[in-house]
Design brief:
The protein is mainly alpha-helical and about 260 residues long. The protein folds into two domains: about 90 residues, Rna Polymerase Sigma Factor, Chain: A, CATH 1.10.1740.10; about 160 residues, Winged helix-like DNA-binding domain superfamily/Winged helix DNA-binding domain (Arc Repressor Mutant, subunit A, Orthogonal Bundle).
Length: about 260
């Protein structure tokens, strides 16, 4: 099977034959279903998974057309990044996230950063809520709303000021299993170290959620079973962890692109 695939890739690189491309699409189509399922698990019910698959399919086609089999990168690793990007770009273009949710996310993020600087530890939910001027219940509700709007939060592309404006997806600074684009490794060192330190400093449950979700690839429901809490609570913990990481990384000259 592996030899057959290598032959297909060689032939496609040589001829760009549409029939061979279609065979490659069929071979790797399960990747699209996998990525769409993972991204769709945290989105509102009105977002149809079939639509996500359609968006991801465009990413897969682009990946097939641009992939160089001579590079020391597995196609699956390369394609997953392209598929995720295509889905996220399309969802962002739809702009279905209310401005109030985005504003509340920024408010919570600023409150966390301020309290951590003041207390020298991760603030509790009660302290965060009091800082913002809302109840803990309202904070939980806000975290749930933010979680539904946070599409693959660690897949966002960030700009690293200290490396001359290079861009990197945060998820790529956590995982390095494939050695993707090794020439950028030195540029990413500062962000990788800062992110690792920030994850290590998370409250225990948030650290577990990040580890199980991004390293072990468990679903939110499976993580809930591990922790003995509801899927909704896991989603809230994930959202808090992401907001904490964003606020901490802001202190090492990592910033989101303009307009985010």
């Amino acid at each position: 099977m592996a030899d057959d695939l290598k032959g297909l890739w060689r032939e496609f690189r040589k001829t760009q034959d549409k029939a061979i491309r279609d065979r490659l699409i069929l071979t790797y189509a399960p990747l699209v279903k996998f990525v769409a399922g993972r991204l769709g698990s945290g989105l509102p019910a009105h977002v149809d998974e079939n639509d996500l698959v359609s968006y991801g399919l465009l990413g897969l086609i682009g990946a097939i057309e641009r992939y160089d089999p001579d590079r020391d990168v597995k196609f699956e690793t390369y394609a997953i990044t392209r598929i995720k990007g295509a889905i996220i770009d399309e969802l962002r273009a739809m702009d279905w996230v209310p401005r109030s949710v985005r504003a509340r996310a920024r408010e919570i993020e600023r409150a966390m950063a301020s309290l951590e600087a003041q207390l020298h530890r991760a603030p509790s939910d009660n302290e965060i809520a009091e800082k913002i001027g809302i109840t803990e219940t309202e904070l939980d509700d806000s975290l749930t709303d933010i979680a539904r709007s946070s599409i693959a939060a660690l897949d966002e592309v960030w700009t690293i000021s200290s490396s001359g404006g290079d861009q990197v997806a945060l998820i790529d600074t956590i995982e390095d299993t494939s050695g993707l684009e090794p020439q950028r490794a030195l540029d990413e060192t500062e962000t990788r170290e800062a992110l690792a330190e920030s994850i290590a400093a998370l409250p225990e449950r948030e650290k577990i959620v990040i580890t199980l979700y991004y390293y072990e690839e468990l679903t939110l429901r499976e993580i809930g079973d591990v922790l003995g809490v509801t899927e909704s609570r896991v989603s809230q913990l994930h959202t808090k962890a992401i907001l904490r990481l964003r606020s901490r990384l802001a202190g090492v000259q990592v910033r989101t692109p303009a307009g985010e």
